Amino acid sequence: MIPTQVDLGSDTATRPGPEMRRAMCEAEVGDEQRREDPTVRRLEEMAAERVGQEASVFLPSASMANEIAYKVHTRPGDEIIIDRWAHPANFEGGGPAALCGATLHHLDTPRGIFTPEQVERAIRPDDPHYSRTRLVSIEQTTNVGGGSVWELARMQAVVEVARRHLLRAHLDGARLFNAAVASGLPASRYGGMFDSVTICFSKGLGAPVGAVVAGTEDFCREARRMKHLFGGAMRQAGILAAACIYGLEHHVDRLKEDHENAAELARGLHEIPGLKLDPEDVQTNMVYLRTDGLGLKPGEFVERLLAHGVRMNAYPYQRVRAVTHLDVGRDGIRKAIEAAREVAAEALGATAKSRT
Ligand SMILES: *Cc1c(COP(=O)(O)O)cnc(C)c1O
Fold first, then answer.
1. How far is CA 312 from the centre of its chain?
2. Distance, CA 347 to ligand 1 centroid (Å)?
3. Distance 94 CA to ligand 1 centre (A)
4. What pLDDT digit, counting tens, does each position of 250-291 carry?
């Protein structure tokens, strides 16, 4: 097996570069559990401001950020309205149930983006037979939804329904800055309308570790309690926060390169016979494709591609996902397209031979 040369498996694959490492090395630190780490505090202030909130809490992961937000907003038995394929509903180990005792009300959506009418219909009547609808949770950008961007007006309309019914609203903005860069709107335009906002620094922003959950001062006071409860309170975490600050300062605007690379990848893959995708669907740094035209299951395609040194991942709905990031440049994109072309040609050749 040749080593992976182009890792499009996820934007979590980024490694901290020399400048980021230097920032980590030189970070001023203290005991962050006692709120004495100046670098963590600076990050918390910066992040809150960027997403249009009063304050934020530094955490080891965006999963923990989402779960802490849910824990603060809900009581056991409460219901959360969420897209069926959203991260907390699939990739957080059953956290909403295990950690919060919350049940999920799944909405089926085309690209992870639901309508105000869907939310309206999902809200339970005030009747002891039902769980109490408590929270609407939105993902921006949508991951399984293809890296799609919620338009501001749609998001406002959904949050407006939540407000009218006295529900809370949470934004899982693990990739909020991708949405901001793609739409040209500041992240605060999206983040400011929510009761809590998660952001992740270990995706496109390139930090090795780190996330925040942002909200009002009151929300953050409760979130800090939950951070202790979940075992997420750290000590000299400024070393990690310094990488996140570096990411916020240097790696936000450059996300547009990732988006251009994803578009380039989509155009290249689209030309390969047997691969199915619509380059128009690519709004940020994700490309989803179908491989059934090659007679290959997503897992088989991924395995063969890996033998060429290129990693992609198999994803729900029989698709393959490729994600662009900081550590993949134009050369990597060309290599990935070339590898996919070879895998496709081999597969189609084999199918043609088996027919004769
Ligand atoms: C990756 C991701 C998370 C969780 O991030 P971790 O830091 O890996 O826990 C949450 N939500 C979305 C949409 C994600 O893509």
1. 16
2. 34
3. 14
4. 999 999 999 999 999 999 999 999 999 999 999 999 999 999
